[in-house]
């Protein structure tokens, strides 16, 4: 209020031409300071709004996959512990999964990358709909991964595998999924266990026999 008053009084003081030089000089000085502070306040506020907007844009670009509505690995790394601890409080066992789409390359070659991107978007949407409280990410190319609850996971994955096969065009699309059950060690050193857990889920997936009617494999020591 003081700044606004000083700014408003400046023109009146100058135009008034008061004969009291000392008072007039003091008033002019106060008014100039007020105007300066007001300008600085506006500049700082605009900069703050710009900084917030830039930061929000950065987060969106930093965490969101560029093709699908899924997140990316950075998001999983930053939120994995929080999610696993949430599951533990609910008494829910968490698992990591990793996927691969067989014959996906043919979609890109025969129908273009737009068709391939459409398939990836649909798969991401199905995974996110099946596991609304999980984290779904696209690792790279046609590989998805994430952390989801074990309860009901195999049934959900089985249905998604069937849905992906229905997306087939010239070549049959098959979704293979590896699943690794997380241990309690995960939250003690997530940076160490996250990528290892994803790698073990991928290892389980690679042990699905070619041509098998089964497309989901749980990791085990054997």
Secondary-structure map:
Blueprint: H1 2-16, H2 21-63, H3 73-89, E1 94-102, H4 104-111, H5 113-130, E2 135-140, E3 143-149, H6 153-165, E4 174-181, H7 190-206, E5 216-218
Helix pairs in contact: 1-2, 4-5, 5-6
* Head-to-tail CA distance between termini: 75 Å
Low-confidence spans: 1-7
Structural class call reads alpha+beta
- Mean of all residue-level pLDDT scores: 84
Q: How is the main sheet built?
A: 5 strands, mixed
Q: How are the strands ordered across the major sheet?
A: 2-3-1-4-5
Shape verdict = elongated
Rg for CA atoms: 29 Å
Order of helices and strands: HHHEHHEEHEHE
Number of helices: 7
> What percent of residues are in strands?
5-15%
**What is the helix content?**
55-70%
Number of β-strand runs: 5
